[in-house]
Q: What sequence folds into this?
């Protein structure tokens, strides 16, 4: 999102090849400057998405970026090939699983490369890792600095791990931008933005675009 222009794209919720049910111990925990969310990424699976909402994407004014969950090399490859046949899909965004080695991450990235531009989501906490510097050479179109993981205790003392969201992430996004300044591919600031001033400051600091997450969420 560039505030001087209309919104540039609609990014779908994360989607997997097969349907996923919610995590057994999902949770939402408040923290200073944000919150931790653990859901297990429930979704109906790519086939259901393509039979339902995807039928209307070609008629949308905004291009669609499909966010793929990187659950494995073979599933990612199958999802990429399926999305290439869908009108209205202009790019793919690849979310990488936690607790994975650098070589496994790079294998997933290579599986995500195809006819559509590929945006790789890199947690802001991983921006300085050596494998990130290899992404331009693989043919990745852009990097999206995304929400990092964290852990918080529940009221009963049990620890919950999940992704962190909120304004408190903004300094980490600026630091990640500084680290990736010489990466030579576009960098999207994809978390920590809750005010127009934050987005404009990130664009001025070198971000190619800004992606909004929890700032757009509405309670139900």
A:
């Amino acid at each position: 999102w560039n505030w001087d222009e209309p919104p540039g794209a609609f990014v779908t919720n994360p989607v997997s090849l097969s349907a996923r049910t919610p995590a057994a111990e999902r949770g939402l925990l408040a923290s200073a400057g944000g919150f931790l969310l653990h859901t297990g990424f429930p979704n109906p699976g790519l086939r259901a998405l393509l039979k339902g909402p995807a039928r209307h994407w070609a008629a949308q004014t905004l291009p669609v970026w499909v966010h793929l969950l990187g659950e494995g090399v073979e599933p990612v490859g199958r999802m990429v090939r399926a999305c290439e046949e869908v009108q209205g899909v202009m790019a793919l965004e690849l979310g990488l699983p936690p607790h994975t080695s650098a070589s496994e991450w790079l294998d997933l990235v290579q599986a995500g490369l195809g006819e559509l531009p590929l945006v790789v989501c890199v947690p802001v906490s991983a921006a300085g890792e050596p494998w990130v510097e290899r992404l331009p050479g693989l043919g990745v179109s852009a990097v999206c600095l995304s929400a990092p993981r964290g852990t918080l205790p529940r009221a009963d003392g049990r620890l919950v791990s999940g992704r962190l969201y909120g304004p408190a992430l903004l300094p980490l996004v600026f630091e990640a931008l500084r680290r990736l300044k010489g990466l030579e591919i576009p960098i999207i600031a994809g978390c920590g933005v809750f005010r127009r001033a934050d987005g404009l400051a990130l664009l001025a600091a070198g971000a190619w675009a800004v992606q909004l997450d929890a700032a757009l969420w509405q309670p139900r």
